[in-house]
Design brief:
Distance between the termini: 81 Å
Radius of gyration: 24 Å
Number of strands: 4
Number of helices: 3
Strand order of the largest sheet: 2-3-1-4
Shape: globular
Largest sheet: 4 strands, antiparallel
Structural class: alpha+beta
Order of helices and strands: EHEEHEH
Helix content: 25-40%
Length: about 140
């Protein structure tokens, strides 16, 4: 069977329990139609780059699926009918990722939070007033 990664975004004003119930509902659709869920991850409430239907944040959930195309069509149809689902995306992949996804790997997130993003930025020390800079610029004094 083909392999898929499926992510859906649910409204921010839903509780985590309601999102879990929605995930369970979609999971039962997959299993009833002969598919298999290899992994399901709840990524939490994340800020969106732009507003979607007046929402600035959304609950995000990932499914790794091993299912026929008919299953994907059905869960996407269910999500279109559900007012709580803002967006969804399904991608066919050659193989499913083992272990936690990039969103769940703590070491990657911690490194980005610290600012260790390679050789970006200015590495020169900044001058302060204690270094002898009295306001900078031309003072208008004699040479």
């Amino acid at each position: 069977m083909p392999l898929y990664e499926h992510v859906y975004l649910a409204r921010q004003d839903l509780s985590a329990q309601q999102v879990e119930e929605l995930t369970t509902q979609l999971s039962t659709v997959v299993t009833e139609m002969g598919g298999k869920i290899a992994k399901s991850e709840y990524w939490g409430v994340k800020s969106l780059t732009y507003r979607i239907r007046k929402n600035r944040k959304a609950h995000m959930t990932l499914f790794n699926l091993d299912a026929p195309a008919a299953v994907i069509n059905e869960i996407e149809r269910q999500e279109r009918l559900n007012e709580d689902v803002l967006r969804y995306l399904t991608i066919r992949v050659d193989e499913l990722e083992e272990g936690p996804s990039a969103m769940m790997r703590r070491s990657d997130r911690d490194r980005d939070d610290r600012g260790d993003r390679g050789d970006r930025g200015d590495r020169r020390p900044r001058r302060t007033r204690e270094d002898g800079d009295e306001g900078g610029g031309d003072t208008g004094g004699e040479e």
